[in-house]
Amino acid sequence: MKISDILADGRLSLSFEVFPPKTDASFDSIRSATEEIATLSPSFMSVTYGAGGGTSRYTLDIAKNIKESYGVPTLAHLTCVSSSKATVRERINDIISSGIENVMALRGDIPTEMMDTDRSGWDYTHAIDLVRELRESGADLCIGAACYPEIHPESCDQSEDLFYLKEKVDAGCDFLTTQMFFDNNLFYNFLYKARERGITVPIMPGVMPITNANQIERAIKLSGSFIPQRFKSLVDRFGSSPDAMKQAGIAYATDQIIDLFANGITNVHVYSMNKPDVARAICNNLSAIIGR
Length: 292
Ligand code: FAD
Known about the structure:
The protein has 292 residues and is α/β, with parallel strands linked by helices. The protein has helices at residues 3-8, 27-38, 56-70, 85-98, 127-136, 158-170, 184-196, 213-223, 229-238, 242-262, 276-285, and strands spanning 13-18, 45-47, 74-79, 102-106, 142-147, 175-180, 203-207, 267-270. It is globular. It binds flavin-adenine dinucleotide (FAD). The site of flavin-adenine dinucleotide has 22 residues, from strand 3, helix 5, helix 6 and strand 6.
């Protein structure tokens, strides 16, 4: 099933993101975590693509398993920046032949040591190159891309970020998923500005439940997200008690999701990070709201 059809359906739902194993040794444990999440019947599950393509094979293995064994639609992420055209074409063919109908077209992070190199000879410099290639393949794929309510760290300002976002969407995206944010007002402002720029595809908010104090530092480093005082207080009060922090982090994410649903969003994407207990707790908190 295509994600564009899921988003058009209008029912309130949650989707979950998982990441593939980095080594053969962790494959079985990660597969079983993703299977547990699949039993919660999310609207779909997305499977990330390892930075630099290191775990590319597993992205499809996990996505196929969830789709075929649990009937949950899957979205396979694909990055392009440090890959050759031949490699990306091979990956696209693998996705098509595996029967996965949804692809998240991403640039990927530029490795630090390559930040200052001349990119003019690269096969791919931005996600738009991958979106175009996926469209040119002629395959009947639903294509998603990333967007940033708090602007991408490499952008000068929001106006520039939205300019390139519009260009990326016009190249053939069916939907967008946001970077995580902890203040819903940032998302609402972004949504308003994106619509004002003529970006009309569905924009799915991404929410990350922070369940331990160390995760916050990593999450901010990765996303540059603004942390509201309300969230800081929660970490100050409960950060040193793992069980209390987990409960508080799940409650905070639940609160964000309820507010998003109340303001007209129909599907929230949860960065569940291979944690079935967290995904389950959120589903339980929202059982009457999402009708389960
Ligand atoms: P782009 O769309 O190329 O944008 C990157 C920057 O370039 C932005 O500043 C943009 O404004 C600018 N830009 C875009 N087009 C142009 C242009 N034509 N000319 C000049 N500037 C331009 N990373 C992974 O490695 N694996 C994953 O699975 C993964 N999944 C993700 C899922 C989501 C929902 C999000 C939000 C991010 C994900 N990432 C993932 C991280 C992502 O790869 C990085 O944030 C990366 O730095 C940017 O990727 P992008 O696809 O947004 O790039």
